[in-house]
User: Fold Cysteine synthase from Paenalcaligenes hermetiae.
Amino acid sequence: MKNYPTIEDTIGMTPLVRLQRLPEQYQVGRGNVILAKLEGNNPAGSVKDRAASSMIRMAEARGLIKPGDTLIEATSGNTGIALAMIAAVRGYKMILIMPDNLSVERRASMTAYGAQLILTPADAGGMEYARDLALSMQAEGKGLVLDQFANEDNPLAHIQGTGPELWEQTEGQITHFVSAMGTTGTIMGVGNYLRAKNPDIQIIGAQPAEGAQIPGIRKWPEEYLPKIYDPSKVDALEAITQDEAENMARELAAKEGIFAGISSAGALVAALRVAQRVENATIAFIVCDRGDRYLSTGVFN
Ligand SMILES: Cc1ncc(COP(=O)(O)O)c(C=O)c1O
Assistant:
């Protein structure tokens, strides 16, 4: 019988597409090309499918978990949706803990995949509070926390998948890689792979500016910095304001036909800033997820 893929097998190998109008509008340097890696094309709709699959597969391979077990995770959204999908595919129970101010589409997607949700009051401490609660539930024996913030299998997904894909899709021409930073799994993993291929490649992180609330990404306080994060592996950090990210999300959809989330637009703001300073560069940025995940926020109205 033919060996058909599972839904999990369809994760990765996402398209890398060239922007056609925004580079000219933003007057980028001569000979620059800006490329969008469309991670919203993954089966559960975001870059997080890669990390979720990697963390569960590797924990299973090490004998830490087996189908039927319960997994717990604090998540700002996309990881929860991805973990809920992989848990459904592989037969795990999934408990997801998230602040109650995150978009309703996200919550509904998680429950559609069969996950149990615990909503924590946003004013009790947001993601930091959710992360602490996940760990205390694990201590009480309620399940295993994968802890995407400290789990090396999160960046591993990008060392094995996203990084090699970008290298091959650009035929080794990539000069700059730009990613918004949440757990930092994407930027750490892709950066690790690309730098080994060419030490001159510039790795640029996009972070919310003071006061900006961009779903999925954070400028973490020192004591909550992800354990997988190594600041020496990022060449430059760009602070993105709320308005910059939201305006760019609208422009990206209307002028390029790429309907993406706010953090993806933030990464593009950073990519365009870089592109205004350099010439003959091949700049790739991560489109983490699709814009329809943010419709209820009114950003696209
Ligand atoms: C919408 C969105 N953007 C960006 C990111 C950042 O990706 P990473 O956690 O790999 O840094 C995430 C991660 O959850 C996300 O959900």
Q: What stands out?
A: The first strand starts at residue 16 and ends at 18.
